[in-house]
Amino acid sequence: MSAIVLEAKHINKSFHDPITIPVLKDISFQLRESEFVSIIGKSGCGKSTLLYILSTMDTDFEGELLINNQSVVGETDAALALIRNQHIGFVFQFHYLLNEFSVLKNVMLPGLKLGQYSAAEVEHRAYEKLRILGIEKEALKKPNQLSGGQKQRVAIARALINDPLLIMGDEPTGNLDKKNSAIVFDIFKELAASYKQTLLIVTHDNEFAANTQRIIEMEDGKIIN
Amino acid sequence: MKYKLIADIAKSLLLARWKQTLVAAVGVTFSITMFITLLSFMSGLNDMLDGLILNRTPHIRLYKDIKPNAQQPIALANKKDTTYNFIHSVKPKRERVELFNSASIMRALQQDTRVLGVAPKIATQIFYNVGAMNITGVINGIDIDAESRLFYFKDYVVAGNYMDLKNVPNSIILGKGVADKLMLNLGDMIQVTTTKGEQVPLKVVGYFQSGLLDIDKAQSYCSIATTQKLLGEPNNYITDLQIKLKDVALAPPLAKEMQAKFGVDAIDVQTANAQFETGSSIRSLISYAVGITLLIVAGFGIYNILNMMIYEKMDSIAILKATGFSGSDVHAIFISIALSIGIVGGAGGLLFGLGLSSIIDQIPFNTSSLPTIKTYPIIYNPTFYIIASIFSIVTTYFAGFFPSRKASKIDPVIIIRGK
User: Fold this and answer.
1) What integer is the mean pLDDT of A165-173?
2) Which of B45, B126, B129, B339 qualifies as a FRET site for B225, CA 20 to 30 Å off?
3) Does A85 touch chain B (CB under 8 A)?
C-alpha cells in the first residue's frame, strides 16, 4: 500500500457574501502516492474551490486537511507558502508565466525560492525538466515568444522543478486546442507512468478524465462517485 | 540566496517598466537636488548675515558700566534686619570708565583654555571738524593684530593698508561714510576734537566699511596708543576687553563667571544679539520645510508608480504566491523596488545638489555693503547631505510601504479564478 499524500477530512466551505451559500459539503477523500486522479463535475459544483482549498491557497474552510500526513489547518502564511513551494506543483488554465523572465528563469524561480540546491544545480534541473517536456530549445526565449501549448508545457516544467509530492491542475487543457490538449495529457500520463508522479487534475473534459486512473465526480458540493 | 532572488525579481520588474521607474527616480533626484541646494544656499546666506554683525562682535565683552553703586552708604550705617532703606533718585557718582587692572585681567584670560583670544579696546566719543561744523563720531582704539586675528578687521578695510594704523604714528582709518561726508582722501589730515576739548590732527591711512551704514557714518579706528594720547590717558587705560571663545555656546555662563571673578560688567553675544539667532533659525526652518515638501511630493510619485505596477503585475504576484512565495517575500520585492528608486534617485540628487550649489557658488554677487562677499554664499555642510540621504530613503520606504502591503495581501485564488 503506497503512502497517503493528501487527505481531506470533512471539508465544508460556504460563501457568505451576500448570503450564506454552502459550496462544499462534507468532502472527504484520500490521495495516494503515484495516483492519477481527475475531479469532474458541472460548472459551479465546487471542484475548483475544492482544489484551491487542497492547494492551501484558500484557508477559509472547516474540516481538516493533511498534506504529507501533516495538518495544514491554522498554519501561518509563510508556512503554507513553504508547503506549496516544496510539495505542490501547479498547472492552471492560464499559464501565468512571468514575461520579464526567460522560460528557463520562470522554471527556476520556485526552485531558487526553495533554495534546496545551488543556483547552478537548479538551472541544470530546470533544463532537465524542459527536456522531458520537449521544449529545452526554447529555454532562453521569453514566454511571450512561445505558442500556447509550449507555454503550458513550461508551466508544467515549473510545477515539476521542486519534485513535488503532488501536481495539481485546474483545467490545464481548458485553453488549448485538441492537438495541444493531447500533448499535455500525454505529458501527464507519462509523468504518472514513468516518474510515479501523483496528479490531481480538475477538468470538465470527460474524455480527459476517462483516461485517468480514478475519477472523482462532484455535484452540488458533494462527492457523488 | 533568498535575498538575491528577491533582488533579482525586483530588478526584473523595475527594468520591465524602466521609463516609469526613471520618472520616479528623477522626481527623487530633483527634490534631493533642490533640498541640498536650498539648504546650502540658505545657510550660506545665514552665515553671511550673521557674520555681518557677529564676526565683528566679541563673544563676551568686559566693560565698566556707568551706574549707581548697589551698596549705598546708608546700608552700612543702618544694618538692622528690621529696617529697609528707600532711597529716591540715586545717581551714579563720578567714576572712570576704564577697566581697573586690565593688564592682569588680560593675562588671566590668555591663560584660560576656553578663550581663543582677547582684544583690548578703547571706545571714545569725538568730533570730526569740517570747516565750521563738528560732526559727532566714535573712535575705537584697537590692538590691530588682535583685532585682525579675532574679528577679521582687515577684511573690512576697503582702501589703504590696515597695518599702517600700527606703523604710522597718529593715523586713523575712517569709516567710509565719514570719509565720504568729509571728502577726505587717503593721506589727508583730519582734525578731531576730544571730549576734553583738545584738537588733534590725524592722518587718514584707510577706509573702513562694515556694511552697516550707521556704523560707517560714525566710527573710525585708531591704534590704542594713539587713542590714549588723544585722551591724555596713561598706557594702561583700556575701556573694553573683547573676548572670543573657542565655543560660542559657552558665552552666557562664562560671562557670568568673569563678571564675578574680575568685578567688571560682562555681556555675552547671545544676550546682546538675540535677534540674529531667531532670524537664522527661522530661515533654516523654512528651507527644511520646503525641502521636505519636495521630498513628500516625490514620495507620492513613487507611490503612484508602485500602485500601477502592482495592478499590472497582479497575475505575476498571484503566481509567485501560488508557487511558494509568501506575502512577506512579495512585500520585500516591492519594498526593494521602492528603495532602489529612492537610493538611486537620492544618490543622483546628492551629486546634482553638490553640482548646483557649486555653480551658484560661482555666480558673482557684489554689494557695496558687503565688501568681503564676491559670489553668492554657499555652505558645504556634510550634515545636509546626510539628512538628505536619510530622508530620501525614509520617504521612499513609506511611499513603497502601502503598495507593498497591498501586493502582499493579494489573494492568488481570486486572481487565478478570475481568468
Assistant:
1) 85
2) B129
3) yes
Q: Which of residues 28-57 of A touch B (CB under 8 A)?
A: 48, 52, 55, 57
Cβ contact A113–B323 (<8 Å): yes
Residues A95-115 as b or e (16 or more Cβ within 10 Å = b): bbbbebbbbbbbbbbbbbbbe
Mean pLDDT of B189-198: 86
Query: Which H or E element spans position A107?
Result: helix A103-114
**What are the structural domains of chain A?**
34-51+75-223 (3.40.50.300)
Percent of chain A with pLDDT over 70: 100
Closest chain A CA to residue B324: A85
Nearest chain A alpha carbon to B14: A100
Phi/psi region, residue B123 (left: phi>0; alpha: psi -120 to 50; beta: rest), is beta
Q: For residue B29, what are the CA distances in angstroms to B34, B344, B364, B399?
A: 9, 8, 27, 15
Give the whole-angstrom CA distance, residue B181 versus residue B51: 27
The residues, ordered by sequence, that sit 6+ positions from B67 with a Cβ below 8 Å of its Cβ are B92
For residue A66, the cross-strand partners are A7, A71
Q: Do B329 and A113 touch (CB under 8 A)?
A: yes
Other C-beta atoms lying within 10 Å of the C-beta of residue B102: 20
Instruction: Mark yes or no for CB contact A81/B325 under 8 Å.
Output: yes
DSSP states along B48-89: HHHHHHHTTS-SEEEE------SS-HHHHH---TT------S
- Number of Cβ within 10 Å of residue B44's Cβ equals 21
Nearest CA of chain A to the CA of B4: how many Å? 10
Q: Beta strands of B152-251 (E only): which ranges?
A: 157-160, 171-175, 189-194, 199-208, 219-223, 240-245
- Number of C-alpha atoms within 13 angstroms, CB side, residue B72? 13
pLDDT at A113 over 80: yes
Would you kindly state where each structural domain of chain B is located, as residue ranges? 2-54+276-418, 60-69+95-271
DSSP letter (8 states) at residue A213:
S
Residue B330: name the closest of B404, B233, B413 by CA.
Answer: B404
Beta bridge partners of B221: B140, B173
Contact B328 A77 (CB under 8 A): yes
Q: A112: distance to nearest CA of chain B, Å?
A: 7
More confident residue, B280 or B29: B29
Q: Does B1 touch chain A (CB under 8 A)?
A: yes
Cell readout for B106 is 588680560
Whether the pLDDT of residue B419 is over 60: the answer is: no
The C-alpha of A182 sits at a distance from chain B's nearest C-alpha, in angstroms, of: 22
Over residues A46-62, the pLDDT tens digits come to: 888 888 888 888 888 88
pLDDT per residue as tens digits for the range B367-377: 766 666 788 88
Q: Minimum mean pLDDT among A94-98, B244-248, B415-419: which range?
A: B415-419
Which chain B residue has the Cα nearest residue A107?
B323
Q: What is the ipTM of this complex?
A: 0.82
- Say yes or no for a CB contact (<8 Å) between A96 and B326: no
